[in-house]
Specification:
By secondary structure, the protein is of the alpha+beta class. The protein is about 40% helix and about 20% strand. The strands form six sheets. Strands 1, 2, 3, 6, 12, 13 and 14 form a seven-stranded mixed sheet that branches. This is Xylulose kinase.
């Protein structure tokens, strides 16, 4: 694919739930610039909260206008230029994005992408290019009916998981497409292409429809993760003519073409700059953290996710198996927990005056085990387990409405979140012990008090990478890897980078404190669910 010049740079982007992020790295993969645009703060006209819009009549419905993402991208690139970044030196672009969300391009949209006027704003030119004006995103939980229909059509939940790597989940793209087809048939007929959020973002830079990559595509309930082709039985169960609307999937490290002339003329990119497949934020985090066999990645973001590399695909009772972004022969196990940072921020607001320092002081002031108190907090319908609401239990196991103090509430939240993760990881067959490294990333990985609880609950050391978010960094690494994968392995390309740093080690009594709490969690969960 060619060797970049010594002063070449690589641009990594991340279209997350709450913001667009950008990072520029040099030929040695060192960060030279980073910036971001926050949706709530910087684009108030779209009236998002936490980057999304909740339906006022059905809070299970969670969407985003894709035009907001387009306008925010323009603002992001302007910030890079104002910050002194020479975009003409960018050899390749890749990106990550929140998984599962879908963008429905209207008939004729690709022609518009191919004929953009560099003298006009991008969001103005694409205003009529979407057949569905509000894109469903990963927080949407309104497709239970379509999930059951899909599972029934293929022969059951386990059969679907064996094909696609997952049971049917409300947030997954296949059931979401089925809902659009069933409830908005005219919009579906007027749809020329359906993109994931990642391939939508890549399409903007490419100036034509970008292909969905294997890693992000395996979070749709549509891709056969072994053959890397769309499953015909799954497609037929969701909507007609779906293969044509999706296009053919490609490896995550594919170079999909050169950048659109719009970005060359308007922002100063080189016409030789390559657009590499964009992928999901979780696969990109695996790339950014340079995960190896035996490691476990815990991403503490808007949602919390647990990721572990797999040599062979397996069928999980909970969670997901995704295709690896770095190899067509490898796989990744993933468990997703919807109530992550927003729930932590809610308790911070209620108990710690909206200050993380006070939150940490309260957390540190209580003992491991929290005097026998235990709490589970689900602001929105959780994925694993499928429950909603707040559940507080005292030492005697009696459910209570409130705890005795704010410090107890804070520790109950953090311990409850990590105890649940340990229980569900163990339930799908993963053993996390002292020989395992937990690599933490995401916003909460900057809080050492939270990481100490994580280390104690799992009874294993926790490592972090300093600096930039792992998903956007992974996108930048992927951009370089795509240009050089034929001559160098990913390990060779990144071998000179610093190793993750030890953040916390477990206390000596951690195992004896938290193993009974994991057992207690399972008993509480059975009571809640039943």
């Amino acid at each position: 694919m060619g060797t970049p010049t010594k002063d070449a740079t690589f641009l990594g982007l991340d279209l997350s739930t709450q913001q667009w992020k950008a990072v520029v790295v040099d030929e040695d993969l060192h960060v030279v610039h980073e910036t971001q645009v926050q949706f709530d703060k910087d684009l108030p006209e779209y009236r998002t909260h936490g980057g999304v819009i909740r339906d006022t009549t059905d809070n299970r419905v969670v969407t985003v206008p894709p035009l907001m993402w387009v306008k925010a991208l323009e603002m992001l690139l302007d910030k890079l230029r104002i910050g002194g970044v020479d975009l003409s030196k960018v050899s390749a672009i890749s990106g990550s994005a929140q998984q599962h969300g879908s963008v429905f391009w209207a008939m004729g949209a690709e022609l518009r992408l191919k004929s953009l006027d560099a003298n006009r704003f991008l969001h103005e030119q694409l205003a009529g290019c979407f057949s569905v004006l509000q894109s469903p995103v990963w927080m949407d939980a309104s497709t239970t009916t379509q999930c059951r229909q899909l599972e029934e059509a293929v022969g059951g939940a386990q059969v679907l998981a064996s094909i696609t790597g997952s049971h049917a989940y409300e947030r997954f793209t296949g059931p979401q497409i089925a809902k659009v087809f069933q409830t908005k048939p005219t919009a579906y007929r007027n749809t020329e292409r359906i993109s994931l959020v990642s391939s939508f973002a890549a399409s903007l830079f490419l100036g034509q429809y970008a292909s969905i990559d294997y890693a992000d595509g395996s979070g749709m309930n549509l891709l056969d993760i072994r053959s890397k082709e769309w499953s015909e039985v799954c497609l037929n169960a969701c909507a007609p003519d779906l293969a044509q609307k999706l296009g053919d999937p490609v490896p995550s490290y594919s170079v999909q073409g050169s950048i659109s002339s719009y970005f060359v003329e308007r922002f100063g990119f080189s016409s030789t700059c390559k657009v590499v497949s964009f992928t999901g934020d979780n696969p990109a985090s695996l790339v950014g953290m340079r995960l190896t066999q035996g490691d476990v990645l815990l991403s503490l973001g808007t949602s919390d996710t647990v990721i572990a590399p797999l040599v062979e695909p397996c069928t999980l009772s909970e969670g997901h198996v995704l295709c690896s972004p770095l190899s067509t022969d490898s796989y990744v196990a993933l468990l997703c927990f919807k109530n992550g940072s927003l729930t932590r921020e809610r308790i911070r607001h209620d108990c710690a005056e909206d200050e993380w320092q006070i939150f940490s002081e309260l957390l540190d002031s209580t003992p491991r085990g929290n005097f026998g108190n235990m709490g589970l907090y689900y602001d929105v319908q959780e994925i694993i387990p499928f429950v909603n609401g707040d559940y507080r239990f005292n030492k005697a196991g009696i459910r209570v409405n409130r705890f005795s103090g704010k410090e107890v509430e804070v520790r109950a939240l953090v311990e409850g979140q990590f105890v649940a993760k340990r229980a569900h990881i163990e339930d799908v067959g993963f053993v996390v012990g002292k020989c395992t490294r937990i690599l933490a990333t995401g916003g909460a990985s900057n809080n050492r008090s939270i990481l100490q609880v994580l280390s104690d609950v799992f009874n294993t050391p926790v490592f972090v990478m300093d600096g930039v978010n792992s998903a956007v960094l992974g996108a930048a690494y992927l951009a370089k890897f795509a240009l050089q994968h034929l001559s160098q392995s990913f390990e060779e390309i990144t071998s000179h980078l610093p190793c993750p740093e030890l953040a916390c080690s477990p206390y000596g009594d951690a195992l004896s404190v938290y193993t009974p709490m994991v057992t207690r969690y399972r008993a509480i969960l059975e009571e809640i669910v039943n």
